Amino acid sequence: MLLHIEEGVTINAVAAPDRRRVLAVGCIIKNIVVLEDLHKILAEADRIVVKDSPRTGAFTLFESTDKKDLDELWGSLTLEAPAKWFQCMCDGTPALYVYVRGCKRVELTNHHGLSLRCSLWESDVRICDTEKWLSWFDERGMSGPRREVEAMRAQEEQGKRDWDKWLGAMPKAVRPIWPDALGQFGRVDIAPLRAALESDMPEEGGRILALLEWFGSGAGPWSGFPSYETAAEKLLLDHSTKAIVTAIESTRLSAAQTEGAARLFAGWSFLTQRPEDKRDLPDSLKKVLSTNRRSGSW
What we know:
Elements: E1 2-6, E2 9-12, E3 22-25, E4 28-31, H1 35-44, E5 47-51, E6 60-64, H2 67-76, E7 79-80, E8 95-100, E9 103-111, E10 115-118, E11 125-127, H3 130-138, H4 144-169, H5 178-181, H6 190-200, H7 204-215, H8 230-236, H9 241-249, H10 255-266, H11 268-273, H12 283-289
Antiparallel strand pairs: 1-2, 3-4, 5-6, 5-8, 7-11, 8-9, 9-10, 10-11
Helix pairs in contact: 2-3, 7-8, 7-9, 7-10
């Protein structure tokens, strides 16, 4: 039997285990999340196996036929049925396999302690109480889920510190317009930034030094850094190498300015756009830049 959803869109109703539980999301048909279905299976279950991933050949982390483990598994799950379909991009880890009288009835995967994927539904579901969920693994000697969550939290905290540092070093003329210039995926429209800088700092050397300070205040990596940091690099490359060198030699550089200069001259953009300019840098400047261990041989 075919179900007609909208003009030009049909699905095979036999593919849906329960026709009352299909939901149209755009032109895609998804099973509605019914949390009680999972609860019923866990209530009947008599065995659980936990593996380090849902992939073939995964290592078994835990196995139990104790009803207490299954009851506490459901107790650890504070779930929120989604208003809209979503799925995490990763496979999930670990993977939990629930059995009833020797038959595998459901597969669950943990996604960063934030969401759960269940083989009963196509959408993931949000975990409302991460701590309760992680504790179930902790109490059974599986530390991986908590380590992952703690590493993610540490990364998020570091990301906030890096962002605050970047904003703090930003030239003051750029700050009011930065939110509007920053687009999706870290892309930055530098045209309004350029205009604001030129208006606020008409002297070229001053602009260059401010941009070096900014470019030297990034997250740290020179490769694999947040894409919004290229805004400072692109604005610096508006200026000739000679003008940049003149600005650098006009003052004693701060640590951030030295970092910015080394990062600029050792960067892929400079080396590919101006391959002849590196060898023409003054020896005195090369000596300063060589103090940065990442800038390579000058």
